[in-house]
Amino acid sequence: MRLDQKVIIITGSCTGIGKGIAKRCVAEGARVVIHGLEPELGQELVQELGPDNAVLHIEDLATEGVAERLVALAVQTFGRLDAVVNNAAIVASSNLKTTDLAFFRRMLEVNTLAPFALIKAALPQLQQNRGCVLNIGSVNGWSGEPDLLAYSVSKGALMTLTRNLGDTLAREAGVRVNQINPGWVLTENEARRKHEQGLAADWYKDISPVFAPAGRILWPAEIAAAAIYWLADESGPVSGQIVDLEQYPLIGRNPPKN
């Protein structure tokens, strides 16, 4: 097993990509701290994974001291901490006209500052076990869509955090920090958001090849499969890297003509 006996905190893991990563981590031999804001869904996942393999913490990441509580729960429950997956994020539409400072601050607090706080709180344990951090960003972090202003900025800042700490912590503490940037993923929340925006309930079954050359968008399990490499020892000394997980190139692409 690629993650045998490793203990991993995965934020935002009651649903979506985080849930997929948690399930794959346990399948690879890890024990996980499940985190999110949906207690019933979290409990269901813990039962599915097995109480010996998973423990649940429900709390808003913007709350003071949550990072320290997550680390303490991992150590108290499983005796160690080997990795952190900063997956939780607010995904919400906004542009220059609709973005006020309160909204922007909330977005940065959860999507950028919370990952920083958790890395900082976990560092003593990660250094002791020569562990690692995996940040889950977004391809929108490179510039973003017109109506994803605040979200895109928060993910762009996360990329800079990853590159900076991936360099410094690898040299100073033996802790690797990397990031994967998923493209369009069919999570429960994404399916609901698009339906609420006026699309049909089964909108994901008929997507333009401009956006999905493969005829479908990505699945959480596919992001989870990629995450395992970065959490496993097989990724060796690689640190400070950003990897886009999308089905077409972001630079130099020639979209098909309709």
UniProtKB/TrEMBL annotation:
PROSITE patterns: ADH_SHORT
Record-linked SUPFAM superfamilies: NAD(P)-binding Rossmann-fold domains
EC number(s) on file: 1.1.1.-
Listed transmembrane segments: none
Cited InterPro entries: NAD(P)-bd_dom_sf (IPR036291), Sc_DH/Rdtase_CS (IPR020904), SDR_fam (IPR002347)
Keywords attached to this entry: Oxidoreductase
Pfam family, one: adh_short_C2
Gene3D superfamilies, A to Z: NAD(P)-binding Rossmann-like Domain
Any one GO molecular function term: oxidoreductase activity
Record-given protein name: SDR family NAD(P)-dependent oxidoreductase
Organism of origin: Larkinella bovis
